């Protein structure tokens, strides 16, 4: 048995050039296969999370406002229809308030800089810990930190800011977002210095051209009084959305906007990515299976006389099976090791390209291991079946 296993371990390298080429190709196929499967899983998880989150998110705008509504809305502070902290209090007092997971008030201020190519930006005041919802973003909570950190409870009274990737590049001169690039970088808003503590991205230039600061720092800097631009209400479950919406609509100074329609583009894009990744994974699996089956088929045909001789001197089918399995496992195992390097090198690149969390982690390693085992099993089928049926006399005649 040991001799059969050793022969199987040596066989892939009887032709060194072919062995290296096969292992290299298999490493590329397995690595890409694992990446495509993880991209498929990540996109489906993102769609599911988006559906659940968006279906329970309600946006309140000043009555008659369009889009962002502009800073300060359409009614001055003090009028009956003013969209302000009184509106927030009304939202918190509705009968179904026990169903509200959280209510976040936001204040916006347009920032225009004629010296820059993309002159328009938005300064957004929000409570630290609230979602970074960038104006114009399709998925309202898809702004993710790519350098530094987001606003936290300790920042409630601090002059700190989280900026979009486009804003960081065009206005702060930060080309590649990183904690080191942030350093002690500051920006000035309405004459007040703010330390930049993080950079986010929405994978969209318009959404990446904003500045998020704590709402109290915003009020101290821009002095909007008690005026608000938007209020976001998060309901604890889909079942409670309709009664909460009905109660919010009873507030005269607000327009109530639910957001499932707003994410249709993002859902379509992610759905297409999921389907494309799944098809790519199927194609790559087929390529890998054909590759290893063809190589071991060729190897078996080349060694028909050897197989016949082994059987003639008493080698059992069991020994031949062990030899073929060892050969298939060796080729696939080396391909899997190479796939680890391929996946480690490409995971971050693919993650940035598709905007999904595709990391070289335990899941990736498990996928690569599973791919290697699958290819080893597939590759051993032909030589095992062929060797078991082959008689010594037939092998000599074919040779």
TrEMBL record:
GO cellular component, one term: plasma membrane
Location of the ABC3 transporter permease C-terminal domain: 280-392
GO MF entries: transmembrane transporter activity
Coiled-coil annotated spans: none
Topological relation to the membrane, as annotated: Multi-pass membrane protein
Compartments in which it is found: Cell membrane
Pfam families noted in UniProt: FtsX, MacB_PCD
Family membership: Belongs to the ABC-4 integral membrane protein family.
Record-given protein name: Uncharacterized protein
Source organism of the structure: Cupriavidus necator (Alcaligenes eutrophus)
Upper taxonomic lineage: Bacteria, Pseudomonadati, Pseudomonadota, Betaproteobacteria, Burkholderiales
């Amino acid at each position: 048995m040991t001799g059969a296993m050793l022969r199987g371990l040596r066989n892939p390298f009887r032709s060194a050039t072919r062995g290296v080429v096969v292992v290299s190709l298999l490493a590329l196929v397995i690595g890409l296969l694992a990446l495509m499967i993880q991209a498929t899983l990540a996109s489906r998880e993102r769609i599911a999370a988006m559906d659940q989150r968006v279906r329970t998110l309600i946006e309140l705008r000043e009555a008659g406002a369009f889009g962002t509504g502009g800073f300060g809305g359409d009614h001055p502070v003090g009028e009956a229809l003013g969209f302000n902290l009184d509106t927030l209090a009304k939202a918190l007092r509705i009968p179904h308030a026990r169903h509200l997971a959280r209510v976040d008030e936001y204040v916006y201020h347009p920032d225009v800089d004629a010296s820059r190519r993309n002159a328009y930006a938005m300064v957004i005041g929000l409570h630290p810990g609230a979602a970074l919802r960038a104006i114009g973003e399709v998925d309202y909570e898809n702004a993710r930190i790519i350098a530094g950190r987001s606003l936290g409870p300790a920042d409630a009274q601090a002059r700190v800011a989280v900026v979009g990737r486009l804003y960081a590049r065009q206005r702060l001169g930060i080309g590649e977002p990183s904690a080191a690039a942030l350093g002690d970088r500051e920006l000035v808003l309405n004459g007040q210095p703010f330390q930049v503590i993080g950079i986010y991205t929405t994978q969209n230039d318009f959404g990446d051209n904003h500045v998020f600061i704590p709402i109290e720092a915003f009020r101290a800097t821009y002095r909007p009084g008690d005026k608000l631009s938007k209020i976001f209400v998060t309901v604890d479950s889909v079942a409670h959305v309709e009664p909460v919406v009905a109660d919010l609509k009873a507030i005269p100074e607000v327009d109530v906007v639910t957001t499932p329609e707003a994410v249709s583009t993002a859902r379509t894009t992610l759905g297409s990515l999921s389907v494309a990744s799944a098809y790519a994974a199927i194609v790559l699996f087929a390529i890998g299976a054909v590759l290893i089956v063809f190589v071991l088929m060729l190897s078996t045909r080349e060694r028909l006389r050897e197989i016949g001789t082994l059987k003639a001197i008493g080698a059992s089918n069991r020994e031949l099976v062990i030899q073929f399995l060892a050969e298939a496992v060796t080729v696939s195992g080396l391909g899997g090791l190479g796939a680890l390097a391929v996946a480690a090198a490409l995971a971050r690149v693919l993650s940035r390209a598709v905007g999904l969390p595709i990391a070289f982690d335990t899941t990736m390693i498990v996928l690569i291991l599973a791919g290697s085992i699958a290819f080893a099993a597939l590759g051993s089928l032909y030589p095992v079946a062929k060797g078991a049926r082959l008689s010594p006399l037939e092998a000599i005649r074919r040779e």
